[in-house]
Amino acid sequence: AIRMTQSPSSFSASTGDRVTITCRASQGISSYLAWYQQKPGKAPKLLIYAASTLQSGVPSRFSGSGSGTDFTLTISCLQSEDFATYYCQQYYSYPMITFGQGTRLEIK
Amino acid sequence: QVTLRESGPALVKPTQTLTLTCTFSGFSLSTSGMCVSWIRQPPGKALEWLARIDWDDDKYYSTSLKTRLTISKDTSKNQVVLTMTNMDPVDTATYYCARALSGGSCYPLGYWGQGTLVTVSS
Between chains, do B46 and A87 touch, taking CB under 8 Å as contact? Predict the structure, then answer.
């Protein structure tokens, strides 16, 4: 199975900061990568798919990049509502998908 | 409008079989290209994909849980059912059903149910 490793596992930042989360696949997955945001007690919400395509309705401060094995999620100017846990997910190894372990973003 | 909702017992005993139902609206699982997945999340832990069923009744399972899982659909009721046998306390988790963002592809998962917490305890 393809293993997805996120870094960091958690960190704290302030509103207005620019933050980057990294996701690395154990083998090449082309651009078959999605990012999700999850808040406590809620289902994950799709933010980005195909590595860099912003899901409809998601603020433009979110962006994704990468292909192959290394990917990043960037939030250009943190807002209070962005403090959450973020997961990457590969869908290259169809039909079995795998998620990263998550990155918890907390308020500094 | 696409919606999904999970239902099932909140508490099961070890060794019992868990049966969860995903009731959805806004699409038909008889439409070519449609599929529904189950994903779970133990408290404080990461998401884990469990199984998927497609419009043509193809079924796919997590390698590590394959022997314990069965997924099925009732197209007339707009429901997908997941059963997991021999439940253990480590199976305590919130269980989600989800659908792809668009028809014709099963991923990424753009629509999720609200999840149902299942606790395994005697």
Answer: yes
Please tell me what DSSP assigns to residue B16.
Answer: P
- Token pair recorded at residue B118: 């299942």
Note the pLDDT tens digit of each residue in B11-35.
999 999 999 999 999 999 999 999 9
pLDDT at B6 over 90: yes
Cross-strand pairs, A70? A24, A67
In chain A, which stretches have pLDDT less than 70?
none
Do the Cβ atoms of B21 and B79 come closer than 8 Å?
A: yes
pLDDT at B103: 77
Find the CB nearest A97 among B46, B49, B113: B49
Give the pLDDT confidence of A44-72 residue by residue, as tens digits: 999 999 999 999 999 999 999 999 999 99
Cβ count within 10 A of residue A54: 16
Confidence (pLDDT) at A94: 80
* Side-chain-facing half-sphere of A15: CA atoms under 13 Å: 4
Probe site for chain A from B94, B107, B114, B117 (most A CB atoms < 10 A): B107
- Quote the Cα angle for B42-B18-A87, to 5°: 25
Spell out where B55-105 has E strands.
Answer: 59-61, 69-74, 79-84, 93-100
Nearest to A43 among B49, B96, B101 (CB): B96
Chain B contacts to A (CB-CB under 8 A): 37, 46-49, 52, 60, 62-63, 96, 98, 101, 106-110, 112-115
